[in-house]
């Protein structure tokens, strides 16, 4: 009988691989109910740790202790300091960057550019005085955010596309690939008319990658089933239902408003009458299917990029911007019908 792996547990539980690892290590980063659910799945599947691998990991940690090298700065340019990390995606960026920094011997410390008596120039001076040379610039509060900061003395990377114009190397999800993956999965489950309903601001924040990936993926569908993306400025039930009656999607791809759409569709049933999928699936919403963008890994990758720049003595604004794109992964959920179920025959209301 093949050994049960963490990936097997992740697929059964509908969570990311890193979440399973945290649960098996009883990490306090997970909510107790989430940790308990994953541990139950692991027990039901008969999971046992690989003793040889566990011994090797323990041995490596013992003979290669991580020593402190330096501090990295997390640059928060939001008007309200706490609002940035109240966004779960951005909080996972921070946690991923902090943990990976720690593993590599660095400490990650947050610097808020709007603290009383603080200016970007003042923060830069503080960083230079403390010999903090590596910066991770958090996503800006609004697309097209400006950052009047002198990067000359620093190795810097930005998370996402919201800093305009782009000045630094960028680490983000490969949203084009994520959207194409989502359409591919939905088509493989038997959905034929796959619609995209999101706010144009969300697409702008990802450099229009959602619409780009969706448009490319639509070319794999039968011409009669291809739909144009619908990006209304005002997301509301009346607009959504009018669009649905007109375009007749049997599944809707959205971002951030999956639960609102479920309520707008009543008395139609999800997923029996219509499916819902999200471009930003989350572990704490196990019933909503979609693509998980690997937010913790994105933050960890940003830390790796900055540390690599520090080691190569790369400072200031880069002459050529390098984009590091982290792929998303499929996350199943109850908002989509089982691939073996027949397509609903109910006509749109």
UniProtKB/TrEMBL annotation:
GO molecular function, one term: DNA-binding transcription factor activity
Keywords, sorted A to Z: DNA-binding, Transcription, Transcription regulation
Region forming the signal peptide: none
CDD domains attached to this UniProt entry: HTH_LacI
SMART domains documented for this protein: HTH_LACI
Keyword Cell wall biogenesis/degradation assigned: no
Domain HTH lacI-type residues, every copy: 4-58
Name the UniProt record assigns to this protein: LacI family transcriptional regulator
């Amino acid at each position: 009988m093949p050994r049960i792996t963490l990936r097997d547990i992740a697929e059964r539980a509908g969570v990311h691989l890193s979440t399973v690892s945290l649960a098996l290590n009883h990490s306090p980063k997970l909510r107790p109910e989430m940790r308990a659910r994953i541990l139950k799945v692991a027990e039901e599947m008969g999971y046992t740790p690989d003793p040889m691998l566990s011994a090797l990991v323990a041995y490596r940690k013992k003979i290669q202790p991580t020593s402190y090298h330096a501090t990295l700065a997390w640059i928060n340019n939001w008007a309200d300091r706490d609002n940035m990390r109240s966004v779960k995606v951005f909080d996972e960026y921070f946690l991923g960057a902090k943990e990976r920094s720690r593993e590599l011997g660095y400490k990650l410390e947050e610097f808020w550019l709007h603290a009383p008596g603080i200016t970007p120039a003042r923060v830069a001076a503080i960083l230079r005085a403390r010999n903090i040379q590596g910066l991770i610039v958090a996503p800006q509060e609004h697309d097209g955010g400006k950052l009047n900061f002198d990067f000359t003395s620093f190795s810097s990377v930005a998370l996402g596309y919201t800093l305009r114009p782009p000045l630094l190397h960028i680490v983000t999800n490969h949203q084009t690939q994520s959207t194409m993956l989502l359409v591919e999965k939905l088509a493989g489950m038997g959905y034929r008319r796959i619609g995209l309903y999101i706010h144009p601001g969300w697409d702008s924040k990802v450099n229009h990658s959602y619409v780009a990936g969706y448009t490319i993926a639509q070319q794999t569908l039968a011409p009669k089933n291809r739909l144009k993306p619908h990006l209304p400025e005002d997301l509301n039930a009346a607009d959504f239902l009018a669009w649905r009656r007109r375009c007749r999607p049997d599944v809707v791809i959205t971002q951030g408003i999956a639960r609102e759409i479920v309520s707008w569709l009543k008395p139609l049933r999800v997923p029996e009458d219509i499916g819902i999928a999200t471009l930003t699936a989350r572990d704490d919403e196990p019933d909503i299917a979609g693509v998980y963008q690997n937010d913790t890994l994105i933050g960890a990758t940003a830390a790796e990029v900055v540390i690599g720049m520090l080691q190569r003595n790369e400072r200031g604004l880069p002459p050529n911007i390098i984009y590091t794109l982290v792929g998303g992964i499929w996350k199943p959920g109850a908002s989509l019908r089982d691939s073996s179920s027949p397509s609903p025959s109910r006509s749109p209301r």
